[in-house]
Amino acid sequence: MSSTQTLADQAVEPGRPEPRALSRRAVGADAVFVYVSRGLGGLMLAITGGIALFLAWQAVPTLRHYGLHFFTETEWVPEADKVGILAVVTGTVTVALVAMTFAFPLALLTALFISEYAPARVKATMVSAVDLMAAVPSIIYGLWGFFLLQPQAILVARFLHTYFGWLPFFRVDTDMSTPQWEQSRYTASAFVAGLAVAMMVLPQACAVMREVFSQAPSGEREAALALGSTRWGVIRSVVLPFGRGGVIGGTMLGLGRALGETIAVLLIISPAFDLKFRPLEIGTETVSALIAGRFGEASPSQLSALLTAGLVLFLITLVVNMIAAVIVSRGRSGEGTDI
Amino acid sequence: MSAVTAAPPPRGTVLPPVPGGAVGAGSGNASTFVRAWDPTPVPAPRLLARRTTEERVITTGSVVAGFALAWLVCYRLLPWGSPVGYLVVAFLFTLLLVSVATAIVTPGPAVADRVASVVVSAGALTVGLGLVSTIIFTFVRSGPALIHWNMYVQDMALAGPRDQLDIGGVAHAILGTIIQITIASIITVPLAMGTAVFMTEVGGKFARVVRTVVEAMTALPSVVAGLFIYTVAILMVGLPRSGFAASLALTVMMLPIVARAADVVLRVVPSGLREAGLALGSSRWRTVWNVVLPTARPGLATALILGIARGIGETSPVLLTSGANQFFNANPASGVMNSLPLFIFSTVRTGEPLYIQRAFAAAAILLTLVLILFVTARFLARSRGASR
């Protein structure tokens, strides 16, 4: 009854200890923790950011020397002082486009199969299998593409050239009337390299898509089913619209990886610095294969040119990845749709 | 607006048709309807869980007929007889047959549904075929070399290009891979984990900058990481081409990948756990060490092991930095040091059939290492379901 003392009265009551001062400043072990982890973060920033700055710094002499010609020149002949990345960037984009032509539909279908069609028992196994695909070393996909796939792929290339050769990008420079068709004109092409790269980037794209599909609100799925929709109807009207961001973002993440792929491409293609978009024909060159092939005999100025090419590749990949990240995060989130 | 928000009638009730749709239950004065006798039996609900016999027959029949027709077209009528062409034509015929057969039995949306399910299954099957063929092909091609015990214990110092497979092996490359990945992991683990803890647990403006840069650097192509170390460590600092330089290149490649994966894992630790720890009076450091990290342990282990699996198979950084030798070298600080991916790449490029055999043996061993790492990661992730 009589204990109507307020907190303020308690505080000023004599004989009680003063309340300790509250502060956000870390003391003791906490301070050590905060400073050590901040130091590690700073070190990480210095290393990773240092690479980007170093690349940019190394690119200065090359860009100053060649100017805009660096971006419009197709040849890479350092001896003749002709160095440009137009052809290699075109080759990089060609290989990546071929890879995405195959990787995108296959990743989408696999993601749909895992999230919508697969029985619950095998779902976890299939997810693991896709993750395992991502972990298989790229050199092994290179061997697979070179020894197993190439003999089959040139037959497909020949077929496409025979029946769709009137399309400019299916053209191959070879004599069509010879009784024995020239197989070597179809090997070591951007098409074969792109197929091997597709195997590499597919699991990553598939994982992103599957993740988004599995988050599609079950209330809307059930609503579609209750309205009499078929399984395909659910996919078309609920899953795909909901997962659009994930589909685009996953594809672009795969594209970013495809642009930077080195060793499988280096193993398969035969280098050629032509400005062309004929993926079925022998010979192409990508930025990463150029770096891996030319670094050994490079003089300091050529090394600077290679580093500049690397910087351009890095910037392209970075932009693609950033767009992908924005699209994935901006996709409609599942929050609030399920009551 | 007639308020027709009545609760659904109990099972089995058959409401008589009410003119005007005015059901009394909504308006408050509950009126009872006498159930009218309806002699028509309620049909048994059809099973939705599994496929009907008709669907199964149509799908199986179309697949069989499609493959048979494709054989006729590809190998008897037109000069398209190649395995890939055959599969594509068979797929198209199957699609056609499924849509026609379904349209005859149940026209309408069912056709699109069946066609879609065939297309989706075929896509998943193709991907599975790709993965299985990659693994089986690697092991089958390496079979003749893998049965020789010397492949696992000898180096290539005594084996020339013409020597048979019972001389020489890839043990030096295995040793090199293990040394390089160990050094790279020793540098990567504390740095990447510390950065991840900093980004999630300490936070602040600086942490956001670090996170942005780390995420951006995951886009760094591995060959550029190799070129960076080649330029800085070998040409500028004057480090020899060695296992250590290769480890540095692998580290530069793995750091952002592992840091980002660990960051994602730490971010999904429920903040309620963190707050509970702090509310019980433990310090921030104690909370991180005793609550956050143990909760995220399986996820962190998975992130780390998948990063290592990525690093172990990456060829381009080591191609630029380590140099390939043919003999044992256990000293990472001096002398060139071979590794499995580099051995595969350099021996395949020679074009010698016996060397290619050895390259496949190295590929099978590398694939086995990756498989072991992968299974370990899965096992750790599953042993405690806390992180998912």
Kindly identify the CATH topology of chain A: MetI-like fold
**Number of continuous helical runs of chain A:** 13
Helix/strand/pairing category of chain A? mainly alpha
Integer-rounded radius of gyration of chain A: 28 Å
Describe this structure in words.
The complex is a heterodimer of chains A (339) and B (388). Helix content of chain A is 68%, strand content 1%. Chain A has a single domain (70-330), classed as MetI-like fold. The longest helix of chain A has 38 residues, at 29-66. Chain A has 13 helices and 2 strands. Residues 333-339 of chain A have low confidence and may be disordered. A two-stranded antiparallel ribbon of chain A has the order 1-2. Chain A is an all-alpha fold and 339 residues long. Chain A is flat and about 110 Å long. With 388 residues, chain B is mainly alpha-helical. Chain B folds into 3 domains: 1-39, no CATH class; 53-143, no CATH class; 171-383, Orthogonal Bundle (MetI-like fold), CATH 1.10.3720. Chain B has helices at 53-77, 83-105, 109-146, 150-153, 171-202, 205-217, 222-236, 243-267, 271-279, 284-313, 316-321, 340-350, 353-383. Mean pLDDT of chain B is 80; it is low at 1-9 and 18-27.
In short:
Chain A has helices spanning 7-12, 29-66, 69-72, 86-117, 120-135, 138-164, 190-214, 218-226, 231-242, 244-260, 263-268, 287-294, 300-330; strands at residues 76-77, 82-83. Chain A is mainly α and 339 residues long. Chain B is built from 13 helices and no strands.
How do the strands and helices of this protein lay out in sequence?
The complex is a heterodimer of chains A (339) and B (388).
Chain A: H1 7-12, H2 29-66, H3 69-72, E1 76-77, E2 82-83, H4 86-117, H5 120-135, H6 138-164, H7 190-214, H8 218-226, H9 231-242, H10 244-260, H11 263-268, H12 287-294, H13 300-330
Antiparallel strand pairs in A: 1-2
Helix pairs in contact in A: 2-13, 4-7, 4-10, 5-7, 6-7, 7-10, 8-9, 10-13, 12-13
Chain B: H1 53-77, H2 83-105, H3 109-146, H4 150-153, H5 171-202, H6 205-217, H7 222-236, H8 243-267, H9 271-279, H10 284-313, H11 316-321, H12 340-350, H13 353-383
Helix pairs in contact in B: 1-2, 2-3, 3-13, 5-6, 5-8, 5-10, 5-12, 6-8, 7-8, 8-10, 9-10, 10-13, 12-13
